[in-house]
Write a structure and sequence with these properties.
The chain has two domains: 1-66 and 137-234, P-loop containing nucleotide triphosphate hydrolases (Rossmann fold), CATH 3.40.50; 76-136, no CATH class. The protein has helices at residues 43-51, 82-87, 95-105, 121-133, 151-168, 179-185, 214-226; strands at 5-13, 18-27, 32-37, 60-62, 67-70, 139-143, 171-175, 188-193, 196-202. It has a six-stranded mixed β-sheet with strand order 5-6-7-3-8-9, sandwiched between helices. A three-stranded antiparallel β-sheet has the order 2-1-4, with no helix packed on it. It is an alpha/beta fold and 234 residues long. Strand 1 (5-13) and strand 2 (18-27) form a beta hairpin. The chain binds adenosine-5'-triphosphate.
Length: 234
């Protein structure tokens, strides 16, 4: 198996106890990994290190050069149109063409000239996804990108992310609180607790995955237990 991400003994603290404690993480090209964990377990810190937004000592830190991040908030520049936001930073003569294609990929062809403040929450996150994908990343980092969306929009975004992943096939690291999101999308799920991985589950189930499939239910229940959450209808 070739390796896209290879991290050994990554450590991060902010003066107190370790937030990331000797983390080992490898990812294959095109692999979809979800990262779950309670609040404060270190998920965003790990994602920020992978994105290059934070530095931390490690024995080994091998990452692809082309990486993109999508955060919980779309972080669009309000004084630029949607397409200008997407094309921003693409230093190629055909940046606008690429941005147009990326916006078509996320279903926003009709909003290319819109101002960010006129977008719905779902449209804004679609724009953020287009901005991330236009750079053709080898590694796409998603930090709770759908957490602020309503439940129905979130389900639609799951389908969209899956389609985009199938088309472009970047490796994806998805940080989420939503156990179903992880089970619906990921090849592999990691659970972080106090800066250490405490569980790894491979999800070997064909897409589209159904929530009423006993195999997904079993994995969901196992993860909820690991996170210390009692399912309401267990
Ligand atoms: N810049 C910082 N300075 C000091 N402490 C920090 C900093 N960034 C993160 N921390 C601390 O590191 C710990 C892990 O934070 P992190 O944001 O990675 O957790 P998380 O798992 O993403 O949480 P959540 O699910 O609530 O977003 C927390 O205790 C947090 O207070």
């Amino acid at each position: 198996m070739s390796t896209l991400v290879d991290i050994r003994k990554l450590h991060r603290s902010f003066g107190g106890p370790a937030v990331l404690d000797s983390i080992d993480l490898t990812m294959a090209p095109g692999e979809f990994v979800a990262l779950l964990g309670r609040s404060g377990s270190g998920k965003s810190t790990l994602l920020r290190v992978l994105a290059g937004l934070d530095t931390a000592p490690a024995q080994k830190l091998e990452l692809p050069v082309r990486r993109s991040v999508v955060f919980q908030e779309p972080r669009l520049l309000p004084w630029k149109s949607v397409i200008e936001n997407v094309a921003l930073g693409v230093r190629r003569a055909d940046a606008r063409t690429l941005a147009t294609q990326a916006l078509a990929d996320v279903g926003l062809s009709h909003r290319v000239d819109a101002w960010p403040l006129t977008l719905s929450g779902g449209e804004a996150q679609r724009s953020a996804l287009a901005r991330a994908l236009v750079r053709e990343p080898k590694l796409l980092l998603l930090d709770e990108p759908f957490a602020a969306l309503d439940a129905l929009t979130r389900l639609r975004m799951h389908d969209l992310v899956f389609e985009l992943w199938r088309k472009h096939h970047p490796a994806v690291l998805l940080v989420t609180h939503d156990v179903w999101e992880a089970v619906a999308l990921a090849d592999r799920i990691l659970v972080l607790d106090q800066g250490r991985f405490i569980k790894e589950i491979r999800v070997d189930i064909d897409h589209p995955r159904r929530r009423d499939d006993p195999r997904t239910s079993r994995i969901e229940a196992e993860l909820l237990k690991e996170l210390g959450v009692e399912p309401l209808h267990a």
